[in-house]
Fold this sequence. Notes:
Layout: E1 2-4, H1 11-27, H2 36-56, E2 62-64, E3 68-70, H3 72-96, H4 102-121, H5 125-143, H6 149-180, H7 193-211, H8 219-226, H9 229-235, H10 238-253, H11 260-279, H12 285-305, H13 313-338, H14 349-352, H15 354-368, H16 374-388, H17 392-416, H18 429-447, H19 449-454
Parallel strand pairs: 1-2
Antiparallel strand pairs: 2-3
Helix pairs in contact: 1-2, 1-4, 2-3, 2-4, 3-4, 3-9, 3-10, 3-13, 4-5, 4-10, 5-6, 6-7, 6-8, 7-10, 8-9, 8-12, 9-13, 10-12, 10-13, 11-12, 11-17, 12-13, 12-16, 12-17, 13-15, 13-16, 13-18, 15-17, 15-18, 16-17, 16-18
Amino acid sequence: xxxxxxxxxxxxxxxxxxxxxxxxxxxxxxxxxxxxxxxxxxxxxxxxxxxxxxxxxxxxxxxxxxxxxxxxxxxxxxxxxxxxxxxxxxxxxxxxxxxxxxxxxxxxxxxxxxxxxxxxxxxxxxxxxxxxxxxxxxxxxxxxxxxxxxxxxxxxxxxxxxxxxxxxxxxxxxxxxxxxxxxxxxxxxxxxxxxxxxxxxxxxxxxxxxxxxxxxxxxxxxxxxxxxxxxxxxxxxxxxxxxxxxxxxxxxxxxxxxxxxxxxxxxxxxxxxxxxxxxxxxxxxxxxxxxxxxxxxxxxxxxxxxxxxxxxxxxxxxxxxxxxxxxxxxxxxxxxxxxxxxxxxxxxxxxxxxxxxxxxxxxxxxxxxxxxxxxxxxxxxxxxxxxxxxxxxxxxxxxxxxxxxxxxxxxxxxxxxxxxxxxxxxxxxxxxxxxxxxxxxxxxxxxxxxxxxxx
Length: 455
């Protein structure tokens, strides 16, 4: 792989960073009624980042500054993170209009997205820690952005768990550095087996937290319910992309010491099963989606577990990440549009707004893995990678969990089409349009999966 030290190779990240800094400076001088300009500026920075990311994807693979790898994993991470963040910024513009801290919201979102990208593209443990912190600290502030009781509690839980698992991550990296005398992923597994095992488990603790994987998952439903609806859409989507890209790189770079693949497979089975079981009893749709994201993290961990054992692992994890991101933000966009958090609050919603109701049905069926949505293809790739990697039992567990998830998603769908009930309330039209766009995108990416995978 070529080596390079040209800052132009990091133009997508520089665009995001520049948008955050420039947005913060502009927000200092804009009156409250015109802080929406900062949102437009940040959205423009994300669009510019997407353009440069697309151009970079056409070049040969290379390593920049001996720490950042420009390869398909990075290209997909960049594209998915920046696109999902753009979706969230546009989704937030109406609810935040006139808020005295509107500028801060956009800046925090861009910084957290930048950290997620750095996590997914680095090949150095120290840079991974920097990305972890940049992705985490703004997210803690976003969780408590509304300064209400629920948001403050969610932010506190989020922060304490992040600090707790972050300590394990730093300790693990220290052990790995002491064992291998290097911080590159290529040195993972070098040194005494026991030290390496403890170090890798510590490293995984931090990544599991960002990904919402068992046993570092407890913050997910609390933040999904306690934070604002827009923030819930962001933190359950964007950080996961960077975390799973980092997990995949760690799994590929791990040289030995113990069976990391089996450990990841067992954690994947536990994560998808616990997420599904906990979702059954939820009446709050945001909490339901929170547990849904945990189960999706379990499915995403399956191709990571067989990294290095199956050639299908990389396309499976990358395609699934893109499919999950567009489907999850679409479901949360409906929640933002409706402004309701309880399942019963959606009774008769289909008669009030049939198009948005259909969009929600598509997104929920997509999370199940129903054709022709994008997640369906992602799950097919995931099943194929598991079988090809010698973990047929894990594919069976994932299939059983996928079938079981139908029931709790239907608990949300059925009331929308109930007869004799009329849904009353205002609808956020911008969020409704974004929800429809996401649903259409999920179907288009699913139907055009052959083209997407070829790209």
